[in-house]
Amino acid sequence: MAQVNRSGRSKVVVVGAGFGGLSVMKTLGNKSVDVLLVDRNNYHGFWPLLYQVATGGLDSASIAYPIRGLIRPYKNVDFQLGNVTGVDYANKKLIVENSDPIDYDYLVFAAGSAQFYFGNDALAEKTFSMKDVDEAEQIRNQVLTAFEKANHESDPQKRKALMTIAIVGGGPTGVELAGAYAELISHDFRKDFPNLDMKEASVVMIEAMATILLPFSTPGKTEANDLQRSVQSTLEKKGVKIMLSKPVKAVEDGAVLFNDGDTLPAETVIWAAGVRGALLGDKIDIKLQRGARVPVNEFLQLEDHPEVFVIGDMAYLEGFKWGDRTMAYPMLAQVAIQMGKQAAQNIIVLASGSSGGGLTKFSYYDKGSMAVVGRGAAIVTASKPVKIKLGQNALTKIPAWMMWLGVHVMFLEGWRNRWVSIFNWTWNTFNKDRGTRVLTGTRDAKTQKMEISN
Ligand SMILES: Cc1cc2nc3c(=O)[nH]c(=O)nc-3n(C[C@H](O)[C@H](O)[C@H](O)COP(=O)(O)OP(=O)(O)OC[C@H]3O[C@@H](n4cnc5c(N)ncnc54)[C@H](O)[C@@H]3O)c2cc1C
């Protein structure tokens, strides 16, 4: 049975409680519309810190916040746990797995992104991806299990493969993972596994292009700039092996196979090479744009359904300036947050009775980008000159790391999460100890059988 909007006010349904969805919710909070947030998770995830969960730096509860806690200050907001599988535009109903359809007056799709395998979906089965808390925990479990197995593996080749972590993709996520794993091995595992020779361990970052960190490259230039070179040398000093211009052809059990015929034995292969719009985009009857993203007009609406908005990673809207090129807005938290605010403001205009006049076009204020390269090193770029500047509106090393820490703490939801993260990072910085090296999910709780084989 379809739900009835008892208040008689417009009902706004928001799919996804990520950066974009929460921004819609906060802008509409305590306004004269009813809001229902729908998410397949009961938490909002702070994805920029997922790599910390995968590398034993933070526990998952520190980067996730219960949605019901976030909606508490707003009397007009409710939450429904559910996996959205489609939409019936004609009858204004959202289709949710194992649930009645949900009526809406206005709908916002903010379902984020998914991993992309460049048409080679076999890679999905053989590699680990890191798009949510469950996946980050799986990677952490995999790495911890591989080193436990290596500890009693007598065959040197098998042992080396168990002690090799291959990261495909030299973007910000690949860089963050590589730096943190290099530290995990050289500081923590060296003490945890005294019987293993850590010279046999390796962290390998594989990139198909000639440089790492493409989003930080200089427009129109193919060669690495100072910032990219600085990150590459910091990673190499930490012990990361970087393979450039090495497209991956396939991944088999225990090895990465390259286009040029080379092979890298590795039991842990993490895919951080491609991203596309959320899989939900395939089910909403819209012809998708580049990157499997949903095309929207400048007010963030679907062209044929002005009561439906799409924002954040899922949305395709051109207008982002990069050198002399104009491209689609990138998949970044700030884009999703700013789109969420704009979509909500436009919904308020429509809900107040406007037939479309008075809507505001989306415009993006670029606050810059940052990536961390392990303890004490990061890079930050700003689109406008910054006060403390180094190079071209850019900071590197410790000043950038301090700024990275400050920004991430500020944007984390909840004071508990902020304090726990600050404590963990301080502890880790002074003691070189990544505290959450815990292996979970090794046994079936009912049968007590080991689920991870020896
Ligand atoms: C590992 C990683 C690191 C990142 N680092 C940075 C960074 O340093 N800086 C930066 O700016 N950006 C970073 N990003 C990108 C940033 O997180 C995204 O741009 C941002 O989260 C997009 O916001 P969104 O609201 O569009 O989607 P999300 O924040 O991803 O939220 C989508 C929500 O939709 C829900 N959902 C998805 N499908 C369904 C469905 N079918 N039914 C119900 N609910 C659904 C999900 O559970 C999720 O809660 C990173 C992303 C990842 C994965």
How would you describe the overall organization of this protein?
- With 454 residues, the protein is α/β, with parallel strands linked by helices.
- It has two domains: 11-40 and 82-115 and 276-351, FAD/NAD(P)-binding domain, CATH 3.50.50.60; 122-273 and 376-431, FAD/NAD(P)-binding domain (3-Layer(bba) Sandwich), CATH 3.50.50.100.
- Helices cover 30% and strands 23% of the residues.
- The chain is built from eleven helices and 27 strands.
- Mean pLDDT is 90; it is low at 385-392.
- Bound molecules: flavin-adenine dinucleotide.
Secondary structure layout plus pairing:
Blueprint: E1 11-15, H1 19-28, E2 34-39, E3 43-45, H2 50-54, E4 64-66, H3 67-71, E5 77-81, E6 84-88, E7 93-96, E8 102-103, E9 106-109, E10 113-115, H4 122-126, H5 133-150, H6 156-162, E11 164-168, H7 172-192, E12 202-206, H8 226-237, E13 240-243, E14 248-252, E15 255-258, E16 263-265, E17 268-271, E18 275-277, E19 294-295, E20 301-302, E21 305-310, E22 315-316, E23 318-322, E24 325-328, H9 333-351, E25 369-372, E26 378-381, E27 394-396, H10 397-411, H11 415-431
Helix pairs in contact: 1-9, 5-6
The chain binds flavin-adenine dinucleotide.
Flavin-adenine dinucleotide binds near residues 38, 39 and 332.
